[in-house]
């Protein structure tokens, strides 16, 4: 298992946490998941914009990928709602920024892990 460290903007930690929680229930990597969750849960000093997460590259990749998919789904919903005139452009722009940032995190981790 190769370990890696990534810098995650704090506003994306909750989404990565959700991706990890989805893996916690059925994962043989429970200890690894809990280690990453504890890193996310640790209090950051005020003014910190990024959190360093260290763990299995494969697990980090999967959690970031899950958060990217969730952001893409939210973007699709926002686009549909914008088309209907229900949301303003700022909401769609926020969703676009989330997809972009999470994609960049995934790219920083490299290609998909090989089983």
Care to describe what's here?
The protein has 115 residues and is an alpha+beta fold. The chain has one domain (3-109). Helices cover 63% and strands 12% of the residues. It has four helices and two strands. The chain has helices at 13-24, 30-41, 57-83, 89-109, and strands at residues 3-9, 50-56. Strands 1-2 form a two-stranded antiparallel ribbon. The longest helix has 27 residues, at 57-83. It starts with a strand and ends in a 6-residue tail after the last helix.
Ends apart, CA distance between termini? 11 Å
**Mean model confidence by pLDDT:** 88
- The stretches of 5 or more residues where confidence is low (pLDDT under 50) are none
Indicate how many domains the architecture comprises.
1
| Strand elements, count | 2
Number of helices: 4
Output the radius of gyration: 15 Å
Biggest β-sheet: strands ordered side by side in the sheet = 1-2
Shape: globular
| Helix and strand pattern | EHHEHH
Helix amount: 55-70%
- Largest sheet features: 2 strands, antiparallel
Q: What structural class do you assign from the helix and strand content?
A: alpha+beta
- Residue share in β-strands: 5-15%
């Amino acid at each position: 298992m190769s370990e890696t460290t990534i810098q995650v903007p704090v506003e994306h930690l909750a989404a990565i946490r959700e991706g990890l929680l989805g893996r916690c229930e059925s994962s043989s990597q429970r200890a690894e998941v809990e280690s990453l969750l504890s890193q996310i849960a640790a209090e950051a000093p005020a003014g910190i914009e990024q959190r360093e997460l260290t763990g299995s590259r494969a697990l980090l990749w999967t959690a970031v990928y899950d958060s990217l998919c969730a952001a893409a789904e939210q973007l699709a919903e926002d686009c549909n709602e914008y088309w209907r005139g229900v949301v303003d452009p700022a909401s769609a722009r926020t969703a676009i920024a989330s997809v972009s940032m999470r994609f960049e995190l995934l790219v920083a981790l490299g290609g998909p892990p090989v089983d």
